[in-house]
Amino acid sequence: MVVVGLVLAGLAALVHVYIFWLESVAWTTPRARRIFGMGPQEAEATRALAYNQGFYNLFLAVVVVVGIVLVAAGHLAVGSALVLAGAGSMVAAALVLLLSDRSKASAARSQGLLPLLGVVALVVGLVA
């Protein structure tokens, strides 16, 4: 189950790298505007905020990836702690998004389901 948790958390990290790209690199492009449901003026007005938020998503992904690498290198406790911290933060951010704006339920699900499943599988694998 540990491996399943790491794979799911790794996939969640990939999703968050994609979110980073959308928010920090492609924010004002037609694709990103369509995904986030905004026009050109709104995208330009929120560009700096999105840039910062994108890096937050990237840093969460990095924490998860470093944790996975450490587990693979035989450092189960430290690596698992990093994976749980990174993926757990992803889940918490998805919950904040959902609770702050119910219309963002689909986005919250997209960013929160994989890390949630990863956390559950990893914890089950660690306690079993």
Model description:
InterPro entries: DUF1304 (IPR009732). It comes from Cellulomonas avistercoris. The chain crosses the membrane at residues 6-28, 55-75, 81-99, 111-127. Keywords: Membrane, Transmembrane, Transmembrane helix. This is DUF1304 domain-containing protein. The chain has helices at 2-25, 30-36, 40-45, 47-72, 76-100, 105-127. The chain is built from 6 helices and no strands. The chain is 87% helix and 0% strand. It has one domain (2-127). It is mainly α.
Helix share, percent: over 70%
By DSSP, the count of extended strands is 0
Share in β-strands = under 5%
Reading the helices and strands in chain order gives: HHHHHH
Q: How many individual domains?
A: 1
> Which of globular, elongated, flat, extended, rod-shaped describes the shape?
elongated
Largest sheet: none
Structural class computed from helices and strand pairing: mainly alpha
Radius of gyration: 16 Å
Taking pLDDT < 50 over at least 5 consecutive residues as the criterion, the unreliable ranges are none
Count of helical regions = 6
Head-to-tail CA distance between termini: 9 Å
Summed over residues and divided by their number, the pLDDT gives a mean of 96
Protein name: DUF1304 domain-containing protein
InterPro entries: DUF1304
Transmembrane segments: 6-28, 55-75, 81-99, 111-127
Organism: Cellulomonas avistercoris
